[in-house]
Design a protein that fits this description.
156 residues; mainly alpha; Arc Repressor Mutant, subunit A; two-stranded antiparallel ribbon; 7 helices
Amino acid sequence: MSLNKELDLDQPIEDVRHEAVLNIVRTATVLSMKGVALFRRFGLTEAQFNVLFALKYKTRDWTQSDLGRRLVVTRASVTSVLDKLEDKGLVKRVTVHGNRRIYHVILTRKGLDLVNQVEPLYREGIHRVLACFDDAQCRRLIAQLERIRERTSRED
């Protein structure tokens, strides 16, 4: 369905580039809302799932700052999300030997079990939504979105 119809706009969007950006934003919002509904079933927020998912696949120790850079969130946001995950027993902050100011963040067994339960459902949803694209089309879409992000970051 076109964005004009989906949003029930009184007048069509005249600027095709504006319409393209609105489509990207709307699509991201719709996908995010689907994720929120899935994660809520497991008592998680999208940010909490993203932390658990990132920690599952890390190959070395990460600090809170490392997480913040990878998840593109503020330090305060990371601290808040980690506090909540720690309260639920899903992650643990471990003191770094020789540096009492930073902590490594690790998944607990409970956290790993939960992300292992949610991840297959998350991936199934993604595959259902993107079933209209083959692998080559997905790669082209990724490349196009990367180009947009690169150009956007150069604008700053």
